[in-house]
Amino acid sequence: MTISIPDLDRYILFYKPYGVLCQFTDNSRGENKRPTLKEYIPIASVYPVGRLDLDSEGLLLLTNNGRLQHSLSHPKFAHPRTYWVQVERIPDKEALDRLRAGVYIKNYRTRKAIVRKLPQEPTLPPRNPPIRYRKNVPTSWLEITLTEGRNRQVRRMTAAVGYPTLRLVRLKIGIGITQLSLDGLSPGQWRYATTSETKTLQNLC
User: Fold this and answer.
1) Dist. CA 50–CA 1, nearest whole Å
2) Burial (0-12, 13-18, 19+ Cβ within 10 Å), 87
């Protein structure tokens, strides 16, 4: 059931699971309908700020505040977004430095990024379905912070330096000194922004 509440600014943090469309309807035809946000968030008139691909997981911010959608989605505002990225094989220093400096994707060079190799696999809920492991091909995890969000950018960046992305989870969205994060959420769960988070978001407008 969809909940209709008074027409106030609403801010929702959602842990998008793998395989869920980042929209409220699936326009595909036939029997292969995919899960959408409607199956998880029963709040009317909120929309995602930015997107996460079908095969990506993690933090999604939804709001009914159009000014905020513009402020957070437009590249010129450069709000940092932090991801944990599982890649095929073990990136060397040259590959990491290329990611940090910016890589060419088609005719575009990405902005500088903050990239570090995680010392061990992070604690995350299992993905359903799990990634396909290859016995003789190791994997590793990177933490990547970007200030832009072009279509499938992280995947294209790691592929450009020779290390395809296997799993991608967005952890945080930076708003000034405030970090919106997945803390306290499991895949498929959502919560309203706290009072302090709401104030920070409203100040962007």
Assistant:
1) 25
2) buried
Look up 53 and say whether it is catalytic: yes
Residue among 7, 53, 92, 97 flagged as catalytic: 53
Give dist(CA 96, CA 98) in Å, integer.
Answer: 5
Sketch out the chain's domains with CATH numbers. 11-75+173-203 (3.30.70.580), 79-172 (3.30.70.1560)
What 3-state class would DSSP assign to 95? helix
Average pLDDT, 10 consecutive residues per value, the chain (205 residues)? 61 97 85 89 90 95 88 77 97 97 92 96 93 88 93 95 97 90 96 94 83
Q: Are 72 and 61 in contact (CB under 8 A)?
A: yes
Tokens at residue 114, please? 């903050």
Bridge partners (DSSP) listed for residue 111: none
Q: Which two tokens stand for residue 137?
A: 């091909």
